Amino acid sequence: MPEPEIRKTALQLETIWHEGGPVAETPLKKGAAIAVIRNPFAGSYHAEIAGFMDDLKPLGLRMAQELIDALGGDPAAIQGYGKGAIVGTAGELEHGALWHVPGGYSMRELIPESMAIVPSTKKIGGPGTRLDVPITHANASYVRSHFDAMEVGLSDGPKAAEIALVLVMTTGPRVHARVGGLAHDDVKGEDGLR
């Protein structure tokens, strides 16, 4: 397949100082990189689609690097991540699943100590559709303080024959995390869980 046809890209950034409690000494930063591409499978069923994952890999790496740069430029500062896709109405949910490998592995390639599975979500929707992208700790899925989500979306996409591909990263736990469990500083990083 040819290189993905990109209509637009966007970065969404949040800096969270507090959630009603004390102001954090170091705020939590969350960011999302979004790329709206033409869906080459829109409009009809295609039995063979898996090859498009290879075509998406360079885009995944570029988006991951842009997001790391937007969050300060230090890949080691990234503690949480997630991914997602919004498929336009002329596509099918499986087209969003094509983002699992290129989206997840691009972040894991650039972020040191990122053994945890990258959580994901996808849905069908039109322009203005919002997506809650789940977030977990990048190296240990059992770190409760990093269970989070980021709502993303664009007012003009995806159009019917497009897909909005999303990567999300954070620089730490929820700003007032206090529900116990495994802490970031106690992660062993042996199996992506603990």
Structure description:
InterPro entries: AA_synth_put, BB2672. This is Peptide synthetase. It comes from Marinibacterium profundimaris. The chain is of the alpha+beta class and 194 residues long. The chain has one domain (6-186): 60s Ribosomal Protein L30, Chain: A (2-Layer Sandwich), CATH 3.30.1330. Helices cover 18% and strands 30% of the residues. It has 3 helices and 7 strands; from the N terminus they run ββαβααββββ. Strands 1, 2, 3, 4, 5, 6 and 7 form a 7-stranded mixed sheet that branches. α1 crosses α3 (100-110). The radius of gyration is 17 Å and the shape is globular.
Features:
alpha+beta; 7-stranded mixed sheet; 60s Ribosomal Protein L30, Chain: A; 194 residues; single chain; globular
SSE blueprint:
Blueprint: E1 6-16, E2 28-38, H1 52-70, E3 80-87, H2 93-97, H3 100-110, E4 120-124, E5 130-137, E6 148-153, E7 162-170
Parallel strand pairs: 3-4
Antiparallel strand pairs: 1-2, 2-7, 3-5, 3-7, 5-6
Helix pairs in contact: 1-3
